[in-house]
Amino acid sequence: MRIKAIARHEACTRGDGVSMHRLFAEQLRCATDAAGHVDVLKLGELVSAAYDASDRDRQRMTDARAHTHDEVELDLLRTQEFLDTIVENIPIAVFAKCAKSSRYILLNRAGEDYYGMPREQMLGRTPEEIFPADVARVVIEQDRRVVASGMPMFLEEHLLDIGVKGHDRVVNSRKMLIADGAGDPQYLVGVIEDVTERVTTRERISHLAHHDALTDLPNRSAFNAVLGERLERAQEAATSFAVLSLDLDRFKEVNDVFGHPVGDLLMRAAADRLAEEADSAFVARIGGDEFMILMPDDISRDDVLALAERLVESIGQELEVDDYLSHVGLSVGIAFCPDDGVNAATLLANADSALYRAKRKGRGRVRFFESEMDQELRDRRLLQHDLRQALEQNQFLVYFQPQARVDGEVIGSRLCCAGTIRPEASFRRTSSFHSPRRTG
To answer: What DSSP character marks residue 100?
Structure first.
């Protein structure tokens, strides 16, 4: 079936087929966004209007005066050919069926491409004669619902496994009913837009926003979101869980010796081992050589320790990366909610304190958070603050011990003592300083 004039009424009364072309083209532009995506709702209404106008105006053309009949027919033919060209080349599948029998009576070029078959194999046939039984049942049920209600049906981003492009194509589709002059169902007109690539791209962007690009593990943003949910659930349901803070030992050495390409391969291999050993636990890469793990609810201290020790053992084994045998280690700090913190900041700080203690004890260790670590953490943070302030305000005092010959001649000196004058006029010796690398 060929589409008739979209506005035959104006063509009959004014004989202005060209204006109808412009009207249709303008409406089609309105249905297309800046990215070239066609709004299937607007397009469906446009195609529906073309069919509806054809039936409404048939009687009007019959009543036209004889001496204008040929002119009107010529205008209608031009408009019909114009609309046929538009619908044939629209990059969205357009079809029409007989409302009573569900037999296909129109299919455009995009429809052939979508269904994976020439229109000759579909026109005049029902869904049962074309599609697998399970697909045909769904299609016919949708047709019946539209015919029974008389209302358009719009399905957004639903799955269809019809066609040769692969299973589970994501589509936007719209079906609408066209009635005859007596108000009885005559045609079912539909449009189908394949949005699989658009949805896949959107999901990929969302995935990248919440996953580490190197290891494909959840990133810091995803970890913080999941931790927030777990803390809320723990408060509401009175559950407990453990947070593990992990740091790869000697990874910087491998990176410096073998280069970043080998370091990246090593990081991926280590991440794979962590994810495999952690099983159902939530593993995230926070940045650099740091990882975090959220354990399942109400897990025992012994089970957490057993997992942490397995992780240390697994990472401590040789890793063959790009023909290199690499040796790295793993240190783990553990904190429990609610015992060691009921909010994210406290819980993570305490897990980091336990990790810091594990690395100080020789690395490749596992430590649980203990209350005295909290005071140690506060002291360390105070020291960092004091050192930065001393640098900014020129508060360092340095003392040198002279070096002299036995005859008393001074030949040099060596550093004897260094410290800072604190605001409260107390002197802090360097013996209380940590490594500048650790304090930043």
So the answer is: T
Least confident of 134-138, 283-287, 397-401: 397-401
Alpha carbon distance 440, 436 (integer Å): 6
Neighbours of 74 (CB within 10 A): 13
Residues with Cβ < 8 Å from 186, sequence gap 6 or more? 55, 98, 99, 178, 179, 180
Query: Which residue's structure tokens are 């004897």?
Result: 416
Going along the chain from its start, the domains and CATH numbers come out as 8-200 (3.30.450.20), 214-369 (3.30.70.270), 385-439 (no CATH)
DSSP code per residue over 6-46:
TTHHHHHHH--HHHHHHHHHHHHHHTB-TTS-B-HHHHHHH
Cβ distance 241 to 299 under 8 Å? yes
The amino acid at 211? H
What pLDDT score does 437 carry?
42
Amino acid symbol at 327: H
Q: E strands of 304-347, at which residues?
A: 319-321, 324-326, 329-337
Nearest C-alpha neighbor of 70 from the set 83, 58, 61:
61
CA distance 433 to 440: 12
CA distance 415 to 222: 49
| Distant-in-sequence, close-in-space partners of 196: CB < 8 Å, separation ≥ 6 | 165, 169, 170, 171
Nearest to 164 by CA among 109, 121, 113: 113
Strands 329-337 and 366-368, by their bridges, are parallel
Which residues, 6 or more positions from 426, have their beta carbon under 8 angstroms from its beta carbon?
Answer: none
The tokens of 17 are what?
Answer: 């087929």
State how far the Cα of 270 lies from the Cα of 286, in Å rounded to an integer.
14
Mean pLDDT for the chain overall: 79
- Three-state SS at 323: coil
- Does residue 79 have a pLDDT over 90? no
Predicted pLDDT at 5: 34
Measured distance CA(75)–CA(48) in Å, rounded: 21
Number of Cβ atoms within 10 Å of the Cβ of 237: 9
pLDDT of residue 70: 66
> pTM here?
0.62
- Residue 55 pLDDT: 52
d(CA 334, CA 367): 6
